[in-house]
Amino acid sequence: MKTILSAALVLGLCGLAGAADDKKGPDPVGTWQCEYKIGDQKRTSTLTITKDGDKVDGTMSWPDQKDVKLKDVKFKDGELTFSAERVVMDNKFNVEYKLKVDGDKLRGKGAVVAGGNKTEFDFDGKREKKDK
Predict the structure, then answer these.
(1) Which helix (H) or strand (E) holds 13?
(2) Distance in angstroms (rounded) separating the CA atoms of residues 131 and 13
(3) Per-residue pLDDT tens over the stretch 33-92
(4) pLDDT single digits (tens) 111-120
(5) Phi, psi at 123, each rounded to 5°
(6) Bridge partners of 102?
(7) CA dist 53 to 21, 29, 33, 57, Å?
(8) Is domain 26-127 classified as CATH 2.40.128.120?
């Protein structure tokens, strides 16, 4: 009887440990290679997300603009939101992002206001693999 109770206790604790890992949920931390289209033009960017305790932060780079600090970075329930200032020639644009993290992929929307018009675009990213 003691053996059965001991085995049940061990299995129960292992199950709780596994459930705790499952509750950890999506993790936005890492470097993401991203693609999106505005009009017919395919574009790329690199998104780097860091976390210090509960504080999420990061930078975004494009082929012609490097290491732009993200603003208003939030991560809750698998959703990553932030904005970044994109500079094209002498024009500055605030681009807002709302992305869903799913394993090593993220997907969502970006939005920018230019010339009084709001343009939304699909945004996809893949997390870079870490070297072991």
Answers:
(1) helix 2-23
(2) 33
(3) 999 998 899 999 999 999 999 999 999 999 999 999 999 999 999 999 999 999 999 999
(4) 999 889 999 9
(5) -135, 125
(6) 105
(7) 18, 12, 24, 11
(8) yes
